[in-house]
Design brief:
By secondary structure, the protein is α/β, with parallel strands linked by helices. The protein contains nine helices and ten strands. It binds adenosine-5'-diphosphate (ADP). The site of adenosine-5'-diphosphate (ADP) has 10 residues, from helix 1. Keywords: ATP-binding, Cell membrane, Hydrolase, Membrane, Nucleotide-binding, Transport.
Length: about 240
Amino acid sequence: MTMLEVRNLHKKFGKKEVLKGINLDVHQGEVVVLLGPSGSGKTTFLRCLNFLERADQGQMTLDNQLIEVGKAKEKEILAHQRKTAMVFQNYELFQNKTAIENIAMPVMMAQKKSKEEAYQLATHLLEQVGLSERGNFYPSQLSGGQQQRIGIARALALNPKVILFDEPTSALDPELVGQVLTLLREIAETGATMVLVTHEMKFAYEVADKVVFMENGYVVEQGSPQEVFEHTKEERTKAFLSRFT
Ligand code: ADP
């Protein structure tokens, strides 16, 4: 089943066209990795997927709900946003809230769940991300890797149809990257539908179902990791990948 279908997505900042007609299909339970040089539009694309940026033109169908992005009304946008969750490069946790509050509060606000229910869920997710002992810590008292695991728990708490990850390990010290990648693998194994921007090529190769190479606002090439990494078709993809070997 197709969970997310994107058609002809365009986005300009001023006169600069950053997305030039992006098409993407993400099936339920699939892990899709977006690769590409800096400035190719990966983050903008991810942000357009949940209306942190509004694309100018195009269609998205998430969980069978079609949305014309250019014309969408506030109510449609909110309904779409509730089915997505984002994990940010810099975690974006509330600094004046504890770890457990960071997870539980969006659940209470977005899903109108009771405090008791939200905290129960948050406690369970803290355990899943290996931070049961850190629920009452503030973000500043946690390592980058721990903060990102809280960011991931917060996204999972919203029970989204698709989770978007924007370079989730790129702000981390190298020794902390592994623990977050391990958690991402575990989440992938639960059958979550995930779209990730990452430069972790080994992770992409081992975990992705589909690899999408973007450049200059276009999808240049996409396929299974084997197709894209081992049987690369496009010269531009080859040139990009050669930097990592
Ligand atoms: P990537 O994630 O592939 O590095 P981005 O989506 O961050 O690419 O950026 C694509 C292009 O859009 C870049 O040229 C960037 O400068 C530009 N851009 C991104 N966000 C904005 C913004 N809010 N305003 C103006 N230009 C932007």
